[in-house]
Amino acid sequence: xxxxxxTAAAAAATSPLLPSATKHRVSLSTSPSFSLPPLSSLxxxxxxxxxxxxFLHQKRSSVRVSTAGYSTVASPNCxxxxxxxxxxxxxxxKELLKTEFCHPILVRLGWHDAGTYNKNIEEWPQRGGAxxxxxxxxxxxxxxxxxxxxxxxLLQPIKDKYSGVTYADLFQLASATAVEEAGGPKLPMKxxxxxxxxxxxxxxxxxxxxxxxxxxxxHLREVFYRMGLSNKxxxxxxxxxxxxxxxxxxxxxxxxETKYTKDGPGAPGGQSWTVQWLKFDNxxxxxxxxxxxxxxxxxxxxxxxxxxxxxxxxxxKYAEDQDEFFKDYAEAHAKLSNLGAKFDPPEGISIDDxxxxxxxxxxxxxxxxxxxxxxxxxxxxxxxxxxxxxGGSPDKPLQSxxxxxxxxxxxxxxxxTSLFGN
Length: 422
Hints:
Blueprint: H1 4-12, E1 26-27, E2 63-64, H2 83-100, H3 103-114, H4 137-140, H5 149-161, H6 167-181, H7 216-226, H8 231-238, E3 245-246, H9 248-251, E4 271-272, H10 283-290, H11 300-303, H12 309-320, H13 322-338, H14 377-389, H15 402-421
Parallel strand pairs: 1-2
Antiparallel strand pairs: 3-4
């Protein structure tokens, strides 16, 4: 079995979105005695000419996958992941990222498990999506998934440690954590995904995008619309190319080495889309737009983001405004990670406690007694809370000073009392 360092070197050399392919036979085996069963015996495997762009689809080739040191046996459904174990697993993933620089391949792993979703199929798990099916040999053999066995080997010790976490959740947790730890946005993730239990429940091959289609824009729409994603989400998700690099011996794309990749980290070599290819930022869009550095990679499906009018409006915005990119990417990534998933509980599990709740500001009446200016919405909320505290229930913002209102009410009541008394 390959050492963890060797596995990590391979992992760090991969983009989360890059097509990973070879023109000839590819061996990913770390054990010369291992071989997969004949294709005729694999119920979930079908032929497909597609090669992934956004999900690192491989060109068609004969691929051997070694599962040495990694378990792909069927496991019973886990109805829900344990929240405490999910939190602990996230901390272990953070430590893994610090030492192995495997951010790109972990992002790719989550994307590939979710990216088989077909919105036109209602049944689970036939509809595909984030269900942990990628752990089975039959799906690992799909051309799109060549090399992802390295990501599985990196995560398997964490899965062994936390048996109360499903594979489906672990893949998405690793993907989201990798984005965040690389400097990306905080993702609004939820967990509780159920795992498929048998290789027969894997999706057929051919649901992931092509790296070099004749019409890049049309192809991207065909694939991502099938998943229920929009033009904005296509462009935002493409921005994850800010991570990783391409190796020509694996994908047929890119240079063997550039000034940005010759020293690693991980195994040196390949061609990246950005200078800092382990940092999540909006330089993917900036560099594609400018194209000033021949050492940075631009694929046809990257270039089309600034050529297609419907894509260009978002690509231009993201090149100028990283905050907008982060906001839209976070929403798109979270949506992708939920595609096809079956949650238990149905609403999912949150492992983010959110910002600490501070004690409400004490209401000091004297500070708000002036009637010379319009009250702010926040002040109206405070006053409304004071009303409710003494049994009142105002149903609209106050239009004038609280204490002036009280004086008017008292005066009116006094007048009415005097009038009816007489």
